[in-house]
Specification:
alpha/beta, Rossmann fold, 50% helix
């Protein structure tokens, strides 16, 4: 079975432009990892467009069940340290879920190496 990296990153914010910037940043980072041959799942990159298209909530409370299901299938969790990551309720909960399951947690910035 392939390794699956779950990318945790902040998303929820009162300003739509901040949510959009966070979406754009995590898409860029996920794409970078995919180009390097990694299999990744980002709840933001994979779900933002769907949420916007059909009017789903953008808060952690709505997404936690789906995110937990994906974390249980992941081999590692990477926290993408975008502005606000250390204050994000969702990121904190995702890290706690991973730790409770014995899944390794790493912290990365947006700096991308080839």
């Amino acid at each position: 079975m392939s390794e699956l990296i779950y990318i945790a990153s902040p998303y929820s914010h009162g300003a739509e432009n901040v949510r959009r910037d966070r979406f754009d940043d995590v898409c860029e980072y996920a794409g970078h990892l995919m180009k390097l041959g990694h299999v990744v799942y980002s709840p933001i990159a994979h779900s933002h467009s769907i949420a916007m298209k059909v009017g789903l909530p953008t808060d952690w409370d709505y997404w936690k069940t789906c995110d937990h299901a994906m974390i249980t299938r992941s081999t590692s969790l990477m926290v993408l340290m975008l502005p606000g990551w250390d204050e994000s309720e969702g990121v904190k909960a995702e890290v706690q879920m991973a730790q409770a399951l014995g899944i390794p947690v790493d912290y990365e910035s947006m700096e991308m190496e080839a």
